[in-house]
Amino acid sequence: MSEIGRRLLLAGVAAAPFTGWTRIADAATPKDAVVFAKQIDDIVSLDPGECYELSGVEICSNIYDRLLRYEAEDLNKLVGGVAESWTVSPDGKTFTFKIRPNLKFQSGTPVTAEDAEFSLQRVVLMDKTAAFLLTQFGWSKANVKDLVKGSGDTLTLKITEDFAPSLVLNLMTSIVASVVEKKAALANEKGGDLGNGWLKTQSASSGAYRLVSWKANESVTLEAFPGFRLGGPPLKRVIIRHVPEPASQRLLLEKADIDIARDLTPDQIKPLAGNPNIKVQSFKAANTFYMGLNTGYEPLGNVKVRQAMKMLVDYEGMVKSFLAGRFVVQQSFLPVGFFGAIPYAPFKLDVASAKALLAEAGYKDGFAVKMAAPNSSPWTEISQSVQQTMGQAGIKVSIEPMELKAVIGQYRARAHQIAMLSWGPDYFDPHTNADTFVHNADNSDAPKSKPIAWRNKWFIPELTKEMLAAAKELDTAKRAQQYEAMQKKVTDEGPYIFMFQNNSQVARRDAVTGFNPGITEDLNFYRTIRKS
Amino acid sequence: MSVSATEEAAATVTGGGGGENRAWRLAKRAARTLVSVALTFLGLTCVTFFIGRVIPIDPVLAIVGDKASAETYARVKAEIGLDQPLPVQYWRYLTKVVHGDFGNSVVTSRPVLEDMLQVFPATLELALLALLIGVVAGVPMGVVAATHRGRWQDQVIRFVSLLGYSIPVFWLGLVGLLLFYAKLGWVGGPGRIDVAFDDIVAPVTGMLTIDSLLAGEYEVFWNAVSHLMLPASILGYLSLAYVARMTRSFMLGQLKQEYVLAALAKGLSPWRVVWVHALGNVWAPLVTVIALTFGSLLEGAVLTETVFAWPGLGLYMKNSLFNADLNAVLGGTMVVGVVYIGLNMISDLIYPMVDPRARDE
Fold this sequence. Notes:
By secondary structure, chain A is of the alpha+beta class. Chain A is built from 19 helices and 19 strands.
């Protein structure tokens, strides 16, 4: 081969990989599908008896119908899901549900009370993470088959613990009350797992969608169920793509390769304001962002020190600057939007008053304290702001940035001094948060459970009794008052610096409407999404 | 590179020695290689296992979540054997691995081996194209830089290589996306394929470009290529930078040799002297450089895979690590280990083909 020939060949080979660049990729999303970009690497299972991660709960909520629901049409009204109606016995211990007639699973099999019975029982029998939601009724592996009974169109639940009926009914709207098709689950049972292994990646449901595929760290695809009791969803498919990087989510949205971006950061959202094809909306979410103060650490055991520290956080400054749009100030353990929640925010940055309180407590010159915080945004920024403002009163905060799971590990071991974290409610009732922030009647090192009050060594047997009484209160108005008093006390004296409640910000293509996330993942409905 | 493997490779290529003696030598070398590979694996599992146990993330929490009751926590801890002493845990793990069972991943709920078969081809596809770009462009650039030492060509190539070394790949990826995907529309965006083409081709090799060609789905092929181009080019640029720098320095060493002068004096064209004789002698060390580059590409480029939402080994390992998914981390590390050992052996085999001296040893 001549030299020129060789050179040409060499150049050709070198250029070959770049020929792909000449292909123009401009595929928009399909007309009958909605495509989300979202971080979904938290999903570990899509079996509603096991799934307990935020992304998974949202998806399962769209796949499985539940016994009762708060529907998209009115997020504040408790209505029947699989159950058409329900009654509560006068002693508040027996709950009877009538299953809707003519309801069918996606397989065509009728939905019966036996399916509902099986679904609730398997949560307790499998004893996965979410089982505690039901075992708190007094249900256990030994007795659940006697206490949860379904036959024909009637499901009867008996609880042995005292609980407000509204709390029990609210729990019947949570993920553990998802109704699974018994026949399908048992047909795919392996080693007595009640179909758990199979249902991780398959669905047997009567909800608005069917699970087509879950490719871990890649995508989830759902297909509309035309026979859904509220009518088939207008869009045939929902595709949720795992896009971990917010900047990549933004580019995909701008190019119309996705319809809705779920995890944009403020610096990604700002430039989108000028794009006429993209709309950004904020919806109130229910996560509480707070600092836990370990009262076992000498200065933090002093209530005056804690109050001083609550005055050394620039709540307003943060939500007006780097947290703009993402957070609102909320200083109580209940997120606004929950039954009994009050917009109680008595603390603001006040260095002079804080110094006076510290002097009263015997810490005139402040003290040194370590703070464990997750090593990602917005934690990093919040912890730096807190470090700076606390420093103004002589409190020397040294930030220990680490992986979120490492913070939680330290927190559960009560090895922290300050831990900065967030908490999301498990179901739509105030008891879910009260039961963790205001529950510690056993301060020993090996308690039955490790609620947040225990983690901060806040020993409150009396307050715990009040909290449990509120959970059992049958009079709704009285129950709300009890939570109100409790919130004030916990905010004023407790070992928590409650700072913010978050918003979920959704950026969508103009043509895609109807996705209005609710306060918890259970209330993020895909069936209302439309595309023009 | 392991000496024993080189020797073995050399022995298989050369004839030499007589019947029994040769067979005995070969067997001895093969045994030595096997022992060295086995020891490497043992060390790998040991280090990864114990590092996995001392990181301050609780693997039980990764499974049961923060809100689980004490009973559930204790039950799961016992189920996954974490209540046993460390040596017992390690022994159990080793026994399973020997039987090909890497356990289940916490994050994906599937056997780790299955996960590996899914994520590794995605990385392999990316790495192969990146390596092709890196070698095909990097080697000639290195040669040109060496032959034009100190002149503008050398300066430009040095600048380009230096840039490849020093620009953070994360930034390069985002800027690349902004320019070639968002502004110019020349390439596909993050992800391996457009949603519209998802699930059309059944996986055979797991590499979408090859699978789509096998299935005759050319539209899918071009779509996959459009998604592959940018991340592969960026990774290719990084490896190009390294390959070009190394080629330049190897070539400089060769061009000083007397045989180059002799060849030129004999009237051979400078082109032939450089591209055939000098470059021919550089291939041997370059093979090692290329193998190592390939190894690091296959290890998974976490940042590139994150920016491009590329479901490969790097992203998988990162997620597993952050979720204390020890089985997945250990499984992934083993795969990377196998890749490195495999590449070492392959480069040992190639060595004598490109360097006659290795054949004579």
